[in-house]
Structures are given as C-alpha cells and as structure tokens.
Design brief:
Structural class of chain B: mainly beta
Largest sheet of chain B: 6 strands, mixed
Number of helices of chain C: 3
Helix content of chain B: under 10%
CATH class of the domain at 34-183 in chain C: Mainly Beta
Oligomer: heterotrimer
Radius of gyration of chain B: 21 Å
CATH topology of the largest domain in chain B: Immunoglobulin-like
Low-confidence stretches of chain B: 1-23, 320-330
Distance between the termini of chain B: 54 Å
Strand content of chain B: 35-45%
Order of helices and strands of chain C: EHEEEEEEEEEHEEHEEEEEEEEEEEEE
Mean pLDDT of chain B: 87
CATH architecture of the largest domain in chain B: Sandwich
Number of strands of chain B: 22
CATH superfamily of the domain at 34-183 in chain C: Cupredoxins -  blue copper proteins
Chains: A mainly beta, B mainly beta, C mainly beta
Shape of chain B: globular
Chain lengths: 408, 330, 449
C-alpha cells in the first residue's frame, strides 16, 4: 500500500512554507568556467578552457521551416547562440542575443556532440515567441537518457524549474557514459515537442583515439568502449525520427485551440526533413517568414566508401507513433540500445543483424552498416520507413521518412 | 575480460548462422507475373480490386484472377536466385526482397523543384513488359518479396509474397503466417491513393481473414507432438502486429533471415511492418492452437470477432496413418 | 532559510535502526491485488472516470460475483510458484438495448490452461466461455514465476477495449522479494505499470446501443484512442491513493517511491492494443525478463542476456520486468550540499566496504562535498513545478513563494515516468494527464509507506 502523496500533503500542511528575500534579476546570464565575455567559448585572448569542459548557449523560441512539399511550418525550437558575447568588456558592445534568438529556432534543434568525461555547461535563454506574444511559456532542456540524472538539471518542469522569458538557466551535467541520447524541451511536452523542440545528442566514448583491429580492419573511432573494436566505424550519422501534424502547427500559429486529442501526424521526417530534402547535403534555403534565418541545417544523406563501416545513431522523438526504419540492399548490425553497448551484464555479446528496427518516441539505437567492399561507386541503398504509408509528405508520394545511403 | 575470450564469445553467433541443412551452391529461376486481381471479403459479395503476383502463366490473363498472396517461393541457401517478372498491369512494377542483399538500380523522377526522387527501389518491368532480378548467394531464412515501385501504393494493392530459403535443423516442419491488411477505400482509386490516410478494414493471415461465425482457418504444418515446428512470421502490412500463440511459449530465433545470438523465449512477438521472424515451438499436446494478433486487428470490416486469427493444428505422430481421424481432428 | 527534513543530525546507529525498519517493511508486497490459489471473478459493468470529468462504460472483472465491483483493470492475481490456480468466472454483464449480453472468457497467455470438467462453460474461439448468467472455471499450474497478464478471449478487440484485462504475478519459490529464482532478480520495491488506452467512441456506442452497435462502425479497425492509463488511471489520478473513494471502479494507483541505492522492480504490461514507449526518467533500468521468462542463456545462469534501457518498449499483451536503481553516482556535485553552503549541510560519507558508496545512505563518496556547479536564477525568473522542493539537494526543502511547490514536502528527487508518445500524456485535449506518473526518490531517512 502506498499513500505517499497523501501523507506528503499532510506533512506539508504541518511543516508550513518558509519565505526568504529574493535576489535581483539576473536576465541573460551565460555560465561557463573560464569564459569571460559570456559567449560560451574561450576564443577571446586571456580566456582559458578548463580541462574536459564544454559550454553551449541555446536560445528557446519560435521560428519557421519548410516542409518537403513546400508548406511553411511554424515551429518552436532551439537556436544556437554559442559565440555571441553576452558580457562585453564595455557595456553596449555585446551581441544582441535576443535579436539572434528570436525567430531563430531550427529543426531539428542544434546537435549536441559531447565526449565521455566532459563537464558540460549548457545555458538556456528563453527568447520568447515572436509570432505568439500572447504566450509566456517557460522552457527547459531535458537530456533524454542521461544516466543518474538529478531533477534540477532534468528539465521536467513539474519536478523542478523552468526558465521564463528573457532569462537564462544553466544546466550542468558530468558526462560519464557514451552513447546515443537525444534532447528536447519538457515544458507542456505534448505541445512543445509536437512543435519541434527536439534535437540530436550523442557522446563519443573514451576509447576514441585508441586503435583496435576488427574484422581485418583497424579503427580509431567507436560507438562504445567495447574493448575489442567491434563497434568501430569510419563515418557516423545521427538520424532522428520525427513527424509533424501540420494542423497542430497551423492552429498554434493562428492562435486556435490546440488539437491534442485529434493529433495525427502527416509529415514523417528524418532530421527535420521529408524525402527528398533528406538527401540534400546542404542546409535548406532559409524561409522568408523568419527573416531569412537558416533553420534546417541537418542533412540525412549517408555517404561512405566501399568496405567502410557506417554507424547510424538512430533516435526517435516522434510524439504520436512508433516507426520502423528499414534498410534496402544491406543489413544492419545493432550494437547499442538506449545509449548502452548491447552486451549482457557478464559480457555476453547481444549484437544482432537485422533489416529493420522499430522505435517508439524516446528510444535510441546504434546500428552499423557494412558497405560491401565490392560495391560500385554510385551504388545506392536506402534507409526508409517500412510503414510504407509514411513514404509521403502529407499527400505527396515519393517522400516522407526515407533517405539514401550512397557509395562514393 | 581479455580480448581473446571476447573474440571467442563473438564467434558463437557465427557458428549458429551456418547451422542450416547442407548448402549447395546453385542457381535457380522462378517466374512471376503481376496481374489484376480481385478479392471478395467474407462479409460482402462485392470484390475489391487488388494487384497480385501469380506464377507466370506465360501470357497475361484475359480477366482479373482471384487474389491471393504471391506464391511461396522456395530457395536454397547460397544459391543464386533469378526471378523473371511479367508485368500485366498498366504501370511499371518491380521486385525487391528487403532482407536479401542486392545491388539496386533505383528509378528516379525529377520533381518540379528539380529534386530527384526515387520512384522505384530498382529497375522495373514496364507495363506489358518483363524484367529479370537476380540475388547472388542468398541468405537462409524467411523473407518477403514485394513490389519496389511506388511501394506505398503497390504493396498495399497486394503485390507481395513470401520466400523461404533453407530449413533449420531443429525443426523438420514449418508453417508460414503472412500478415497483411486491406484498406478498400484506397483500392477503388489506386492511382489517386493518398497513403497517409491508410485505414485498413480487413486483416489477413495468408490472404484470408477470419470472420465471426465462419470456420476458423486452420494452418496445418503437418506438425506433430514431440517435433519442433518452425513458425515463419512475415508482415506485408503497413502496420505492426503482435502475434500471440495462445498458451505456450515460442523461441524466437531469427529476424529478416538473421539468426539471433540467443533465442528469445516469448508467447508474443512484435511483428513490425515489413518484418520477418522465425520462431520454433515445441508442442506438447495435440489439438488446435489459436494464434492471433494481440494488437487486436481482430475485426472484419468493423465487426468484432474476425480478423487475424488462425489455428495451428498439431497431431499425435501416429495419427498420420489414420487419415479419417486426421480430417475430423481439424 | 532551509527546512532540513532528514539526515544531517542522524547518528549512524539511528540510521541503522531506520534501515532495519525499512527492510522489515520491504518484505511485504508493494503491489495491490488479491492473493491465493482460488479466485472468483465476475464480468460486470461499471464506469471509468477520467480527470477531465469523463465517465465511460466499463466491462471489468470484479473480485467476486456478489459484492465485488467491476475493476479497470481487473484484480491483480498474486499467486505462488507451483500453486494450482483456479479462476472461476461468472458472466454478470448486462447490456443496453435489450439484447442478450455476450459470452465472456479469460485467456492466460503463457499458461497451460484447462477447464474444470465440473464447470466447463461453453466452447469459444480462443477458450471456453461463460454464457450470460453462467460460469466457467479455468485451472492452471503456476509452474513459472514472473509477470503475466490475463484478458478476455471472446471478441477480444471489443472486450479488451471495454476493460476486460488484468495482471498476474507469480512469486518465485525463492521468495516474495525476488522476481525470479535467481539472486540477481532480488528487489526492494516493486510497482505495476499496466498500460492501456481507450477510444471513447466504442464505449459510448456500447453504452447506448449494446455491443451489436459496434459492428455498424469502423471504430475497431480505425481505432483512435484519446485517453491513456496506467493501472486503470489517467494522470494525475495515477498519483492519488489506492482505493480512493471517488474512483470506485479504479482501485489501483501507480506511485513509485524508493530510496537511493534500492532496487525497484518495474512490472510493465501492455494491457491494451497499442505499443507504448515507457520512459522512466532518472536512470537506465535493466530489462531482466519478457513474457514471464528470465533473459538467461541457460537455466540458472541468471539474467545474463539482460540489457539496459531508458525507455521500455511495451508490446500489447506482453510483459516486461525491469530493475531500476538510482544513486546519483558521478553527478559531480554533492546531492546533500556542502559545508561551504552552510553548517546545516554537514554530513559524512562513510564507505567502509570500499564500494565508493556510503554504507547506509548510498551517497556516492567521490562526489562528497563537491559544490553545486552553477548559480540558479532568482526565483522570479523561474517557473516552479508543484514537485519542486525549492532546492537542488536531496531531502532539503527550501523556501518557495506562497502557492508554489507543495507536492514534495520531504524534498525528494522527483522524476516523471510516462509514455514517450507524448500525445498519450493528455486527457482528451487537456495536458498533462494520461499515461504518466512520478517516481519519488526520498532521502535515506524518510519513511516510505
């Protein structure tokens, strides 16, 4: 029997609430050890990057992207404000973080790439919703899957804190384990995640830089600390599964009631694009509605040479459904699930080969594709949704959740 | 753990993979035709327009044939498989086997923005024409073959079938359970189909759907108590399903023709869209065992009590000599 | 000013005594249900309440043909390994529209079931059934320990949706605080997560027109749920007390609580028809079993094929057992605060056995007295959660403005456990709700009831 919450409420009423004085407003405040001018970098003379320290400055707000069939879509997401000076030596000399951040949301959110052992300081500045000034939504960053989390830095607003408009909150996490994770805002999760506050996040292992021979080849980069090179790879690609319900985005843009119950996604995507935009290696052209800010930087085109091993860091931040991603022409070897090397506690190897993987939202998986050594240059394989009805951009066929694996 | 012992442990799955019956490298050829077909649902006399694969009759049928899943193709591990496809439909059709390694020759179109899009995963048989497909050194296991052209449309129109390659030494008998779905609304106007509105109403195993009050389909793998039965699952539908074998557990041993390093003992298994799975079951009693979709695709055109349900028949070893009782036992 | 709830002034002996008490408490079952070898269930009607004010017709299994009320989900049957279990089912369903009530039944996946010759019911498609007003008695031997499910084998697409499903726990012969017969499956606490969803259109049609009305719709094929449940409740009701009088047909809650260093067994069951990605914030969990079978390479090898996840993929009709632990290892700062922050934060980290953890509190000693790494913004720049204690430290409650916080008076660490198909975290159009609850990790000295 478990009367925890009820007892907790009683205890609270007995304990009372104690109030202390508040300090002054801090506003935009980047916290990054060794960084003097508040740009979350150590580029300025005199700044020294402490050992194993990484910093990043993200803005949270709104913006626009373009779907593969040409539809413009209003989004909420994050912008990368790293490199903008927030604490100038002379007052007034700093970069205008708000101007850069407003309507600066990109989809997917800027990738976060870390190394095992990093102490990671991420400052989140809430730049507000330019298109929806009636909204005063706070935001958070939830590092999805980071082991041994603490609520203060877990980004669940109900369980801790979220940051209001015009202010900054700095998240700290000591990165102890490698793997493929993901991140997203957890405020009003159904809404903010459907609106696009989702991004790739992965951690390279400490084993990187050492050399292991595996399968007749030597590798210096690995998915995990495998001790034998079995997760060695030549090139890696983050692939984030997602999809949008355009009706929800339109309702948000036009200040209509949000259709939570009727939510049904009609734009299946990889890394924020539907096919054939997935295979465009460049950032997509900036939409006009956000003042010309490039908002779709992540390609999903996979290229490799014959005989190379390709690591796919697959994550799913779909808000409405499971997805099955398959390969056509070559199999995958699954070597990790949910940011853990796929081995039993006693070391039993649980790697398995397959032609498709099924992930729900919040699941991640590492799969290695061995490009055949005799594959001719120009050969194409495919990574595509085996839920074949997802091979479309709304009603447009030959689109949706698909990309190409090109042999160069 | 030192590296030597780790490498040894890695070798175990490799040993398992070759534990099939003897492999003879050879070539074999099969002939299929993609044709207009009709499927009459159990609750209606109005047939639904389908496209289907049939054994190539040598020329295109004059009128639509009765639809069924494509004929079961049987291959030998390590052999080179060639399938010649005659296209009797009015649009190009192709053939892919997602679980078999292949060199693909994708067919592209250029859209209004100048972007190239793959319309077909590989080369096609034009309307009225033929094309030939070869897979070298084919893998053992259970596979789907299906159209690789306009796949969102052509697969749900019915262009799919199963291929089995080799036999597992543990199981002398096998059954194939090919799951699929039909959304009649998309079939009426196949050319204008909008795939995301896919809402299937008929849920089939091996091209049949159980309808409440009618006889439940019995799948007879000549299965005997004391013998292992290999259940080959394949899902040509666009949605995932969750087959449950009611009562006993199975050992799931492979997916997409890839043997797992360790079998997974389960009474249910996720059968995702496009997935094939091999399971070994050791029955201990005779009788009919229900196998059904726990994702509850257990309706037929909206009516409860139908859909993805079959009986697996298991007999005592001696019953094979008494045909009359065998018949009654079904 | 801080209100220190636990820990700092505790002598080791006091803590030790507290832990003795906790261990004694832990020995009992945490999961609500009915135990024994003989069960009398009845299929009855009732109503499921949702936090948005909805009320939906329920067909549920009740504990007893007499006074027992329909339950969503049905009673959790808790049996011991080796027992011969008899489940007698009485069909007490009534339907609208004057038509005959349907037959009902129970299937027990993973069990070898027979019907009692003295009460065989009538033959059905998946199993024998109870005709309206009649009974059937099933029997099976609980040979294998683990987590199982039961549900209606009659028109399952409709009857499971209407609520006819439940959980079975078979306790191993090794002991009640083991999931299976292996030491690596020992746990300190356990919770059931029986996941389901509901398409209210189906319930409304059955309530108004009886089950025959469903055949005239495409709802069973074109299924579109808008309500989601854990143990039959939608959030925030998941966190209300069990047997709450305002939820008469939904007696079970889902309120996982634990201390650092304890093992919490998650028994996750797909009760409905959809896949659910169940994301447990805080840490990975080790999946040790599926469908009542330990993930082992050979008998008695223990869960040597187990694997760790941060999201449990739940399949309909299947069961997953996973063990969750949390210590805060390697966070890089002291979760109990440092003496530099104030004398009230003084505490020891005593690691006599050399495992890097305090022998009593499971504090990770290498991080002991490391300062909190950043400065938090002033309160007025923050939106504060109801479970926020006002402090980043475990077991510490700090000042909050009036009306803020309040749900976490012991300063526990609170993590959301929920479906990561975030659409399933709503009750109709209202967020938050649905398939969601909170894990509370209480400081070591806080009693958990």
């Amino acid at each position: 029997m478990n009367n925890g919450l009820r007892n907790a409420l009683i205890a609270l009423s007995l304990g009372g609430v104690l109030v202390t004085s508040q300090s002054a407003l801090a506003g935009i405040l980047v916290q990054c050890p060794g960084d003097v001018d508040g740009d979350a970098q150590w580029a300025t003379p005199g700044e020294i990057q402490p050992l194993n320290t990484k910093c990043m400055h993200l803005g949270a707000g709104d913006g626009f992207i373009t779907m593969a069939d040409g539809l413009s879509q209003y989004i909420f997401s994050f912008s990368d404000l790293t490199g903008l000076v927030t604490k100038p030596a002379n007052p007034g000399d700093g970069d205008d973080v708000m101007m850069e951040g407003m309507l600066g949301a990109s989809f997917p959110a800027p990738p976060i790439v870390l190394e095992e052992g990093d102490e990671f300081y991420l400052t989140l500045t809430n730049v507000g919703m330019s298109v929806r000034p009636d909204l005063f939504d706070p935001h958070t960053v939830h590092y999805h899957g980071f082991p041994q989390a603490a609520p203060i830095f877990d980004g669940v607003p109900d369980a801790s804190i979220s940051i209001n408009m015009g202010s900054s909150l700095t998240y700290y996490y000591k990165v102890n384990e490698p793997g493929t994770f993901m991140y997203h805002c957890h405020v009003e999760a159904t809404e903010h995640m459907q609106m696009g506050m989702l991004g790739n996040l992965y951690v390279r292992p400490a084993q990187d830089g050492t050399t292991y021979n595996y399968g007749g080849r030597s590798y210096t980069r690995f998915a995990y600390n495998d001790g034998d090179g079995s997760t060695g790879y030549d090139v890696d690609y983050p692939i984030q599964i997602g999809s949008f319900d355009s009706a929800f985005h339109i309702a948000s843009e036009t200040v209509q009631p949000l259709p939570f119950a009727m939510m049904k996604d009609n734009y299946p995507m990889l890394n924020g694009r539907g096919y054939p935009d997935t295979v465009n290696p460049d950032p997509l052209p900036a939409p006009t509605q956000n003042g010309g800010k490039v908002s779709q930087k992540e390609s999903s085109l996979i290229t490799a040479a014959p005989g190379q091993r390709v690591l796919l860091r697959i994550s799913n931040l779909n808000v409405t459904q499971f997805n099955t991603l398959g390969t056509m022409g070559v199999p995958m070897t699954v070597v990790g699930i949910d940011a853990k090397l796929l081995r039993g506690p006693g070391g039993k190897n649980l790697f398995y080969q397959t032609n498709s993987v099924t992930l729900g939202g919040g699941q991640a998986l590492d799969a290695i594709i061995d490009i055949p050594a005799n594959a001719a240059s120009g050969t194409k394989y495919f990574l595509y949704s085996t839920n074949l009805n997802h091979l479309s951009n709304d009603t447009e066929q030959f689109g949706g959740m698909m990309t190409e694996i090109r042999v160069n | 753990m030192n590296r030597t012992s780790l490498l040894k442990s890695l070798r175990i799955p490799v040993l398992l993979l070759v534990a099939f019956f003897s492999v003879a490298s050879s070539s074999f050829a099969l002939n299929l035709a993609a044709v207009e077909a009709r499927w009459t649902p159990p609750d209606s006399a109005t047939p639904i327009r389908m496209w289907g694969f049939i054994p190539d009759p040598g020329s295109c049928p004059a009128s639509p044939v009765a639809w069924n899943v494509g004929p079961l193709q049987i291959g030998t591990p390590g052999a080179n498989l060639t399938i010649t496809l005659r296209n009797c439909l009015s649009e190009p059709v192709s053939l892919v086997i997602p679980g078999q390694n292949a060199t693909l020759t994708p067919q592209e179109i250029t859209d209004g923005q100048g972007r190239k899009r793959v319309r077909a995963f590989t080369h096609e048989a034009p309307a009225g024409g033929t094309a030939s497909y070869t897979w070298n050194n084919i893998k053992a296991g259970t596979f789907l073959y299906q159209s690789g052209s306009s796949p969102a449309k052509q697969v749900h129109m019915g262009l799919y079938g199963a291929l089995k390659v080799g036999q597992y030494y543990e199981a002398p008998n096998d059954v194939l359970l090919l799951f699929s779905e039909i959304d009649p609304a998309l079939h009426a106007t196949a050319a204008a189909a909008t795939p995301l509105s896919y809402r299937p109403k008929y849920f089939l195993i091996n091209g049949k759907t159980y309808s409440s009050g009618q006889q439940i389909p019995v799948v007879d793998g000549n299965s005997r108590v004391t013998n292992n039965l290999l259940i080959r699952f394949a899902n040509a539908g666009l949605m995932s399903h969750t087959p449950v074998l009611q009562g006993p557990h199975m050992k799931i041993i492979a997916e997409d023709g890839n043997r797992y390093p360790y079998a997974r003992e389960q009474y249910s298994v996720l059968l995702a869209a496009g997935k094939t799975l091999d399971a070994i079951w050791h029955p201990t009693d005779s009788g009919n065992y229900a196998l059904y979709d726990r994702s509850l695709s257990l309706s037929s055109n909206g009516a409860p009590g139908g859909g993805m349900l079959v009986y697996l028949n298991v007999r005592f070893p001696w019953i094979m000599f008494i045909p009359a009782i065998t018949g009654a036992g079904r | 000013m801080h209100m220190r709830v636990i820990r700092t002034a505790f002598q080791v002996t006091v803590l030790g005594a507290a832990f003795m008490i906790l261990l004694a408490v832990n020995a009992g079952a945490m999961i609500d249900g009915i135990s024994g070898t003989t069960f009398n269930l009845a299929a009855k009607t009732g109503h499921v309440s949702t936090p948005d004010g909805g009320s939906y017709l329920l067909w549920g299994y009740a504990n007893g043909a007499g006074m027992g009320m329909a339950q969503y989900p049905g009673p959790t049957l808790i049996v011991n390994q080796g027992a011969t279990v008899q489940v007698k089912l009485t069909n007490s369903l009534t339907v609208a529209g004057g038509g005959a009530p349907p037959n009902v039944s129970i299937v027990f996946p993973g069990q070898r079931v027979t019907v009692l010759p003295s009460d065989p019911g009538v033959p059905g498609v998946l199993t024998n059934e109870a005709a309206p007003g009649k009974t059937v008695t099933y029997q099976f031997k609980a040979d294998n320990p683990g987590t199982y499910t039961y549900y209606s084998g009659t028109d399952s697409a409709l009857q499971v949706e209407m609520g006819l499903f439940g959980a079975i726990i078979v306790r191993p012969s090794t002991g009640a605080n083991y999931a299976y017969n292996h030491q690596d499956t020992q746990f300190d606490r356990e919770n059931l997560f029986l996941l389901s969803e509901m398409d209210p259109r189906i319930h409304q049609v059955v309530e108004n027109f009886g089950p025959a009305g469903v055949a005239g719709t495409d709802y069973l094929a074109n299924y579109f749920p808008v309500l989601w449940f854990i143990n039959g409740r939608a959030a925030p009701d998941t966190m209300s007390e069990p047997m709450a009088p305002w939820l008469p047909y939904q007696p079970y809650n889902c309120m996982p609580m634990m201390h650092p260093g304890e093992k919490l067994l998650m028994r996750v069951i797909g009760g409905g028809r959809d896949l659910h990605p169940f994301h447990h914030h805080g840490n990975h969990a080790r999946v040790i079993a599926r469908d009542g079978r330990l993930l082992e390479s050979a008998p008695n090898s223990g869960p040597d094929l187990s694997y760790e996840v941060f999201t449990i993929q739940s399949h309909p009709g299947s069961t997953i057992d996973a063990i969750f632990e949390w210590t805060g290892k390697g966070l890089g700062w002291d979760i109990y605060g440092t003496t530099a922050a104030g004398p009230e934060f003084a505490h020891d980290c005593m690691d006599m056995d050399g495992d890097d953890f305090d022998d009593m509190t499971h504090e990770y000693c290498p991080d002991h007295n490391k300062p909190f790494p950043v400065v938090l913004p002033p309160t007025q720049e923050l939106t504060l959660g109801g479970f926020y204690s006002g402090s980043p430290y475990l077991g510490l409650v700090s000042s909050l403005p009036p009306g803020e916080g309040g749900l976490n008076p012991n300063g526990g660490y609170v993590f959301m456990w929920h479906s990561h198909t975030e659409k399933e975290m709503v009750n109709f159009d209202i967020f938050p709700g649905g398939m969601m609850t909170m894990l509370i990790i209480e400081a070591p000295g806080v009693m958990i009831h």
